[in-house]
Amino acid sequence: MGMKKYIYAFHEGNKEMKSLLGGKGANLAEMTKIGLPVPPGFTVTTEACNKYYEDDKKISQEIIDEVFNNLHELEEKIQKKFGDIENPLLVSVRSGAVISMPGMMDTILNLGLNDESVVGLAKATGNERFAYDSYRRFIQMFSDVVLNIQKYKFDHILEKEKELSKAQLDTDLTVENLKNIIKEYKTIVKKETRKEFPQGPKDQLLMAIEAVFDSWNNARAIVYREINDIPSHYGTAVNVQSMVFGNMGDTSGTGVAFTRNPATGEKKMFGEFLMNAQGEDVVAGIRTPQPIRELKNTMPKVYEQFVNVANLLETHYKDMQDIEFTIEKGRLYLLQTRNGKRTAAAAINVAVDMVGEGIIDKEVAVMRIEPTQLDQLLHPTFEKEAMEKIEKITQGLPASPGAATGKIYFNANDVVKAANEGERAILVRLETSPEDIEGMVSAQGILTARGGMTSHAAVVARGMGKCCVAGCGEIKVDEMNKVFKVDGKIFKEGDYISLDGNTGNVYGGKLPTKEPELSGNFAKLMSWADEIRTLKIRTNADTPRDALTAVKFGAEGIGLCRTEHMFFEEERIPAVRQMIVAQNVEERMEALNKLLPFQKNDFVGIFKAMGEKPVTVRLLDPPLHEFLPNNDDDIKILSEQIKVSYSTLKEIVEDLKEFNPMLGHRGCRLAITYPEIYEMQVRAIIMAAIEVKKEENIHIQPEIMVPLIGHEKELKIIKELIVKTADKVIEESSADLVYKIGTMIEVPRAALTADDIAKHAEFFSFGTNDLTQMTYAFSRDDAGRFIGEYRKKEIFEKDPFQRLDQNGVGKLMEIAVQLGRKTRTNIKLGICGEHGGDPESIDFCHRIGLEYVSCSPYRVPIARLAAAHSAIKNK
Ligand code: ADP
Ligand code: MG
Ligand code: MG
């Protein structure tokens, strides 16, 4: 049996090996392969990470041996020795997951330094200050990441030393200062761990690798994976790379740059750099970095070289790149490249531009945009007039677009709490860190005082599609006392502000927002998606307003119009209640006759909004007691309103209570017992359709849908009722109108007997909310109590009410599709459950051959794009 290979040197890999080497490792290998200046190193694979967990969090001997073999090769290659007291090899230890997780995992730089090799480094470089600066950074990073000692303890020492020696900046610290700092750092380590700071470079290396593996399961990584749907079995790779130094003086530096603007997509290099600095200095906000174009003045040769490399990388990867680099004494090194994270607007502009530039074709462009990412563009912006009237209090960097208005809170916990109480909250921080992630999720928007366009707040907010204004230097944030001051004004916790992520403007007070538009490149990309997709997209809409919104977003029909929402409106609820408590048919008819004109007008509005597009109306579905008052006071009021004695009414209400309403007297069962209800609804639908047809002289397509069918005979009886009622209305108005009758498939028995049911149904619409509920036998309203635990224990990867359970519920759907078609080859098939807006579930619907999916109006563009993705993927 050949030995398994757990480690690849950079020159052995390439960009296709992401799942094994992680994103960072695969791209370091690729850059090495195409001849770019990458400091050599090697990657410990994700398989090694998984093995580490299989082996109860131990690095096995065979992997240890492989690490040191590779380290030895690295020593040979760059002619330096690990731990050497003359010219030591130093490395960085960098995590690298398959899908990049910015800020989630921790990197250690300058590993290999100890009390002896620091002297060697000073000698070899002739730069004592640099050597000790590197050592103090290393101790701090290692202590934070590996030894879990809190960062602030070290920051405190650094600040104290700066104060004592009157140093303004870190770079002003002298060798003596640095030596003092190192001494105190080591004292802290001793105090916290009861051990000396580890001096053996090989120990340091193994401890660091282990820490990276461990960080795969730290709290913030888990939260990030959860939000971004990254499976936990992917594991992380570890990159061990020889160091290059940006902190060797004025001809050294470090920076990050995007080949295009990640906020807008504009084709213009975008980034920041800092001279005499290392690693995270650029993004940590320690000193203010300079815009990348300034490098042209500082180091013209290096700038030119960098621009060439950036262009080469973009052409090579055929996508916008996010590049990290370091300059060591005037020499450029590449430390990372990846496809740059971008806002949805930027993603669309880059994709459409790249088609224009001939770099990619339309299908690739369509595939470049994650459907759910569009959500960002489908959110409101501020209304112009209101914005001009309100006072702008300050301006920061437009770090992530969108508009947010809400009350301010100064830490993540307070934001989460406020959001849970239904408040719109804005998180205000000096600068965010990974600990703030849950607060960022719950916030409407984020405002920071420090940090640039590539700061933690900016990067994470863009990834989430959340409005963010960063680096707002004029505000003085006092996180302790929960206030910020700007221009003499004070804003306290709970005060309103508004953020414009497109301009960076901050306003004092609330601002009304405006609906988004689908135009320009966005419209162009969507038209490409429409050319490609085969699934039709409908919407779930109960009101003309929702219907119009959906049409604006490209809906091709209504897949589900619920009629019960209409029942709750103030003017009608008394008649609805009267209908429910009626003691005989006459009384019930009287109440229903009052409701008829209301229902008819509702449908007129909807048919007008939809024009010639098909409209599926579902007849009454919920249990009747939902419409009745449930406390004594309200029963009393109702008894006066409808002139039924309190005691009788109370009895009726009690009588209608059910042990298990979800499985009770609802859906088509209502029509089996009280056919008059559906009769009224059908009349309203048909009358409305005829009215609009005549008035607008267009072809109206009503589709009448019966809920909760479980037995074909239910549908047979109800269908006869519908036909009789509808045909009578049509005849009376001497109109001609074609309508369809169909059913929801949402009871497992219906799926299993779909061949019989199809005898009476021209269409099926899968009601996957109920179907999931009944297939799993847990109610959607109660499942919240335990679904969290099910997800933790990985029984469910996703909430089955959000993502279709393809193996179970999906199998029932497949059976129904097959049986339904057997009876009626041209049966129309669609889905109207919540799943109709979830890209992965949409893909399933595409694969089993549904004709359309139906989702809420704001998800229509997402569904259009997801359907195009499915058409491409399943070609
Ligand atoms: P992240 O994934 O958070 O970006 P990285 O592993 O890329 O973390 O490292 C953080 C910083 O350290 C980057 O700015 C990178 O440029 C720097 N860095 C990493 N490895 C080296 C190295 N071998 N030499 C110099 N700088 C390095
Ligand atoms: Mg990086
Ligand atoms: Mg249902």
Shape: elongated
Mean pLDDT level: 92
Task: Give the low-pLDDT segments.
Answer: none
Structural class, by secondary structure, is alpha/beta
Query: Helicity range of the residues?
Result: 40-55%
The termini sit apart by 40 Å
The whole-angstrom Rg is 32 Å
Query: How many H/I helical runs?
Result: 35
Overall strand count: 33
- Bound ions, cofactors and other small molecules, one mention each: adenosine-5'-diphosphate, magnesium ion
Order of the strands making up the biggest sheet:
14-24-23-16-17-18-19-15
Hey, roughly how much beta strand do the residues contain?
15-25%
Largest sheet descriptor: 8 strands, mixed
Describe this protein's structure:
The model has no long low-confidence stretch (mean pLDDT 92). Strands 14-24-23-16-17-18-19-15 form an eight-stranded mixed sheet. Strands 26-27-28-29-30-31-32-33 form an eight-stranded parallel beta barrel, surrounded by seven helices. The chain is elongated and about 105 Å long. The protein starts with 6 loop residues before the first strand and ends with a helix. α19 packs across α35, α20 packs parallel to α23 (585-610) and α23 runs parallel beside α27. The chain has 35 helices and 33 strands. It is α/β, with parallel strands linked by helices and 875 residues long. Helices cover 46% and strands 17% of the residues. Bound molecules: adenosine-5'-diphosphate and magnesium ion (MG) (2 copies). The site of adenosine-5'-diphosphate (ADP) has 16 residues, from β5, β11 and β12.
